[in-house]
């Protein structure tokens, strides 16, 4: 039997690695993106995302001819929608990219095809938004073509590994559609593949991220409570986590990224009155940058300069989306302080002025570590000490070696 031709719409954090994985496992793949710069870069075997192993996979996939790219889809056997679903100012899912991708598929669709939605979407979006844009007379979803929702669950920084090893949930418009999609993903998935219906699959993805958001919110609330009590929240959490049934996550400057800070709202928009804990967790986490800024202000003179280390939404990635660090910088500047922003992972971000390490600390009254990038451990505090105005460090992630910084003369908070 001929291998199915796969067309993937969206060559971002999920679409590009997924296209690469199908292609290096022998499937003919067409990667589609509306951004011509992305298309021309991938066409040369390049990548526009920093993700371990991705360059190698894409080079191999393009080099073998299995992965081609285009700005338009072509008739294929399988269409995978992997476009972003941003959050609107009203905290609702912006489905415009999903709608655009669905409309692009419609003219290419034929009997016997399969449409897979990987994008994260509010419950019932596949039924209410995607299918009506694709169906036409003589082409009925669930009868003439298959539709499934197969949410991605991979964590940035380990995307390729998790694409292979994670269990995968597939919700089908029919049980047979889900089984066909399972056979397709078996090309590279080694984890379990669990089959269900469309709406349950949509909800499972949102529930996973909401669970993590609520857990981090609990940790962040503990950090506020501990500040009032004058104790160390991390010590409280670490000791509580010795209980066999307790697993509290790490507090931090807030929850960022395009998933955990966004997806809980997709549940809240559908069932606002029932999703009370979910909305409360969002409020706690969104309040953390202001809490960090209060703690900074308490330690520096008015209008002082503060060095902020770590601008991405989490450690060891280059992604700035919904980053709490940028909110900390904005609030500080709004309060009349100056901020030297340093992040070794951030390049090509003209919208924010990223300083070098030396520029960031020059004349600073406080260094604030917001993200635990691996690279920060290699910074020698003795080299930093002569550059700053006051030797003070606020290590929000408790990541640096306190004894080493104290030995270099820093007061550590
Ligand atoms: N964070 C904390 N404390 C923690 C863990 C995370 O403050 O203990 C913060 C991070 O600093 C970051 C945010 O939460 O700002 C989110 O980071 P993350 O590492 O928890 O998750 P993401 O957004 O990178 O990826 C998540 C993952 N979801 C779950 O773990 C349930 C991933 O598996 C999903 O595929 C991804 O969302 C997605 O695409 O939805």
Task: Provide a brief overview of the structure.
It is built from 16 helices and 13 strands. With 413 residues, the protein is α/β, with parallel strands linked by helices.
Spatial extent as radius of gyration = 23 Å
Bound molecules: ligand SAJ
Anisotropy-based shape = globular
Biggest sheet: strand arrangement: 3-2-1-4-5-6-7-8
Instruction: Spell the H/E element sequence.
Output: EHEHHEEHEHEHEHEHHHHHEHEHEHEHE
Number of strands: 13
Intertermini distance: 64 Å
The mean pLDDT is 96
Strand content: 5-15%
Number of helices: 16
Oligomer: single chain
Strand count, sense and closure of the main sheet?
8 strands, mixed
Strand pairing plus helix content: what structural class?
A: alpha/beta
State the helicity in percent bands: 25-40%
In the predicted model, the low-confidence regions spanning at least 5 consecutive residues are none
Report on this model:
The chain has 413 residues and is an alpha/beta fold. The protein contains 16 helices and 13 strands. Helix 7 links the parallel strand 7 (168-172) and strand 8. Helix 1 crosses helix 3 (54-63) and helix 4 (96-105) runs parallel beside helix 5. The longest helix is centred in the middle third of the chain and has 32 residues, at 198-229. The radius of gyration is 23 Å and the shape is globular. The chain starts with 5 loop residues before the first strand and ends with a strand. It binds ligand SAJ. Residues 120, 152-156, 208-209, 212, 216, 249-250, 252, 255-257, 259-260, 313-314 line the site of ligand SAJ.
């Amino acid at each position: 039997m001929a291998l199915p031709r796969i067309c993937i719409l969206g060559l971002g954090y999920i679409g590009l690695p997924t296209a690469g994985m199908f292609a290096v496992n022998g499937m003919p793949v067409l990667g589609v993106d509306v951004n011509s710069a992305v298309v021309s870069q991938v066409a040369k075997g390049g990548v526009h995302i920093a993700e371990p192993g991705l360059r190698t996979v894409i080079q191999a996939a393009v080099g073998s001819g299995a992965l081609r790219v285009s700005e338009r889809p072509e008739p294929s056997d399988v269409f995978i929608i992997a476009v972003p679903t941003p959050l609107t100012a009203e905290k609702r899912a912006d489905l415009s990219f999903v709608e655009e991708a669905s409309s692009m598929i419609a003219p290419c669709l034929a009997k016997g095809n399969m449409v897979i939605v990987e994008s994260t979407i509010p419950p019932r979006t596949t039924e209410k938004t995607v299918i009506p844009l694709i169906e036409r007379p003589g082409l009925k979803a669930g009868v003439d073509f298959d539709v499934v929702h197969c949410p991605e669950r991979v964590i940035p920084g380990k995307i390729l590994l998790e694409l292979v090893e994670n269990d995968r949930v597939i919700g089908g418009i029919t049980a047979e559609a889900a089984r066909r999609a399972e056979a397709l993903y078996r090309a590279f998935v080694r984890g379990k593949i669990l089959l269900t219906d469309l709406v349950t699959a949509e909800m499972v993805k949102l529930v996973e991220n909401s669970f993590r958001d609520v857990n981090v919110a609990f940790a962040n609330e503990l950090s506020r409570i501990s500040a009032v009590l004058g104790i160390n929240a991390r010590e409280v959490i670490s000791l509580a986590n010795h209980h066999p049934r307790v697993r509290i996550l790490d507090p931090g400057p807030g929850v960022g990224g395009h998933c955990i800070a966004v997806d809980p709202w997709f549940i809240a928009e559908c069932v606002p009155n029932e999703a009370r804990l979910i909305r409360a967790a969002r409020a706690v986490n969104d309040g953390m940058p202001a809490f960090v800024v209060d703690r900074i202000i308490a330690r520096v003179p008015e209008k002082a300069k503060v060095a902020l280390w770590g601008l991405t939404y989490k450690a060891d990635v280059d992604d700035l989306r919904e980053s709490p660090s940028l909110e900390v910088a904005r609030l500080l500047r709004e309060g009349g302080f100056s901020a030297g922003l340093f992040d070794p992972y951030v390049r090509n971000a003209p919208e924010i002025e990223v300083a070098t390490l030396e520029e960031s600390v020059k004349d600073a009254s406080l260094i604030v570590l917001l993200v635990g990038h691996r690279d920060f451990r290699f910074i020698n505090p003795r080299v930093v000490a002569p550059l700053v105005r006051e030797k003070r460090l606020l290590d929000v992630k408790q990541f640096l070696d306190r004894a080493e910084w104290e030995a270099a003369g820093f007061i550590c908070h």
